[in-house]
């Protein structure tokens, strides 16, 4: 029975290969000017998506709040990989740093890493596409100041179709990339020899009321 399993899987793959598949669009940047970033190299870690956004089916929110798949519509690439790649490409186009996704391909480690945790990524029944979560900037050698920032991006859905969701997903990711790029361009460099902060303790005895 086990030796026939590959044939069964091939048959299932062949049956599903006729469904249309959609790529997340590479949206154009709002400006062609490249932003000078505080790091020369940047690694984008795999984006963490909600379980529903990791599905190969393209989902949309109904009037009752339930997420349902659109008929005969699948993502062309595995969503986590596609989102991570699109985000890295957009940051690389908009900023001065050399950007790559994990695993970092060079011998010298990247000066900083971006960790993105998405809490919501959904085409709403209201006609909006919401992308929410947080991103963290980490730097093992403390080339820049480490920090965590939240993001809430809402983009009008061009149309409630697979193509419309693919286009708007790309636009939302472009806006997130621009937000990350601006954050990496801001002053946040740390001193080579940071001074440990002293904790001030107030030793004045408390006043008592009689």
Write a compact overview of the structure shown.
With 210 residues, this protein is an alpha/beta fold. The protein is built from 3 helices and 8 strands. It has a 5-stranded mixed sheet with strand order 5-2-6-7-8, covered by helices on one side. The protein has a 3-stranded mixed sheet with strand order 1-4-3.
Structural write-up:
- With 210 residues, the chain is of the alpha/beta class.
- It is built from three helices and eight strands, in the order αββββαββββα.
- Strands 5-2-6-7-8 form a five-stranded mixed beta sheet, with helices on one face. A three-stranded mixed beta sheet has the order 1-4-3.
- Strand 7 (128-138) and strand 8 (147-156) form a beta hairpin.
- The longest helix is centred in the last third of the chain and has 24 residues, at 162-185.
- Residues 1-5, 9-14 and 189-210 have low confidence and may be disordered.
Question: What is the topological layout?
Answer:
Elements: H1 5-16, E1 21-22, E2 41-44, E3 57-61, E4 67-75, H2 79-94, E5 98-101, E6 112-123, E7 128-138, E8 147-156, H3 162-185
Parallel strand pairs: 1-4, 2-5, 2-6
Antiparallel strand pairs: 3-4, 6-7, 7-8
Helix pairs in contact: 2-3
């Amino acid at each position: 029975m086990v030796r026939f399993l590959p044939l069964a899987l091939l048959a299932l793959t062949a049956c599903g290969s006729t469904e249309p598949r959609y790529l997340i669009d590479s949206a154009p940047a709002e400006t062609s000017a490249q932003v000078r970033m505080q790091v020369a190299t940047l690694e984008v870690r795999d984006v963490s998506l909600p379980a529903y956004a990791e599905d190969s089916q393209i989902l949309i929110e109904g009037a009752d709040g339930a997420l349902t798949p659109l008929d005969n519509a699948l993502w062309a690439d595995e969503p986590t990989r596609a989102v991570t790649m699109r985000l890295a490409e957009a940051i690389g186009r908009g900023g001065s740093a050399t950007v790559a996704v994990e695993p970092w391909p060079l011998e010298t480690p990247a000066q900083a890493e971006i960790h993105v945790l998405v809490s919501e990524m959904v085409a709403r029944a209201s006609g909006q596409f919401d992308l929410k979560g947080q991103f963290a900037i980490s730097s093992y050698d403390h080339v820049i100041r480490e920090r965590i920032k939240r993001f809430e991006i809402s983009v009008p859905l061009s149309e409630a179709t697979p193509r419309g969701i693919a286009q708007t997903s790309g636009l939302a990711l472009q806006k997130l990339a621009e937000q990350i790029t601006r954050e990496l361009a801001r002053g946040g460099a740390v001193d080579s020899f940071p001074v440990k902060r002293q904790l001030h303790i107030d030793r004045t005895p408390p006043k008592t009321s009689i």
